[in-house]
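Troubleshooting: if your tokenizer reports a length mismatch, compare your output against this known-good record of 492 residues.
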Amino acid sequence: MIHNKKNVMKYILTILLTVNSILASAQSFIASDPITVASGLGYYHPQIEITNDDKPIVLWANSSDKNLYVSKLGVNNSFSTPIQLNPMGFDVQTFDWSGADLAIENSNVYVVFRSLGYETGHVYLVKSTDNGLTFGDTVRVDNLSSGYGQYPDVAVLNDTVWVTFMDHDASGLNPQYVVAKSIDGGSTFLPEIVAGEILGNEACDCCQPEIIVNNDYVIVYFRNNDNNIRDIKGVVSYDRGETFTDFFSVDDHLWQINGCPSTGPDSRFINDSSSVTVYKTTENGDAKLFINQYNHNSNSSIGLKRVYDSNSSNLSVNYPQVAVKNNVFGVVWEGQGESRDVFINYSENGVAGLNADNVYNITNILGNQVKPDIAISASRFHVVYADQSSFNLKYVSLESTTSITEVKNQQLELATYPNPTTDFIAVSIKTERKDLVAIRIINSLGQEVYSTLVKNQNKYLITVDMKKWNAGIYYVLIESSNKVISKKIVKE
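Known-good structure output:
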């Protein structure tokens, strides 16, 4: 197949295509092959986020050596040598269902964890200022005289750091969530204040919490325990975490269980006034996963949907985690497939666009793949999970075949020619207004192979030399200030 640039210019002017987001009736994803994050260093409670330089970073603990590790995906589609975050001889508390947490702002990566020892352990923070390449010394977070602080979770805004964790009374009873705040970027922490007692009940004593912050709210989500009714509630601070004076419910399923289910909520702001929260509960004895979109200005739920329509044959659905970018969100969890598998569902239009039947099995192989977490960047989801067959962590990236697109009114047009191609591709872009537009090309593994910026132009045409690229599938991603679209191209 031979193409020349003159023909490309001729045809490209006549084949501009307006690409719109289409909600499909069934989920379909292009998924990368699983990549091992690290070998022989455990797989407990993996967490994933996207650093400021657009790279997935993974945090996890090893139950054998009681160490905490972090690793980052590199340019060669492999993860960096893991960094041990806890000092030598300073053991970390490890559970497969709960553990350390991380938050990212600019080039700073904040990690919180608890040291080993039920009555002697404490909550600590370590911080990176170079996108996770190196980390500083440990900083004590809690001000507790005894070691009953449990299950830390961290959030950050404008270099102010909030850490929530579970406290107990002097006898180790009456669990309640508290919040400690640092106003100097995590160098020191103010004494913790009680957040959860406004509900009048104790917290469910072994379920991980979630803390989220924006310019108006500091919110701690956790599983409440009201005489063994264990639903998800949120407590709110309107004064940057100085006091918690309000509460609300995202879960009124009245799950009654005489014991802690060891599964908590996950939550993210979807815009300035609304958040989404995912959680497990039961209905009529069947395990269910729900997502609730809550408007904090009106103090009301504006959408409650099942993430997955499970039944009595799939009681193992558990540990849902959510990632949000603008109005796009994805949810992952573990459930029953060939064995225990990792599933995903997503929406491009908030909770209203979610269909509980549109579920994709990410792993779908024999052997147990469990405890997933998810992050989102540009047009891709990034998922990490524990592979209990190899005793390692695995990472995959996914893109919906309908594209991950934020739907806005601005017109953004993209055309590529020729497709398929053997040597080069022409990319034509048209915008409704002069805008800053980012052009990226990634391969099927999620690696960026080309990028450029277009400034202050309504129309733009580039040609990209692909002669030295490997044959396969690539994706052209176009991102303006309020819209992202993508197009698949084939290199033969």
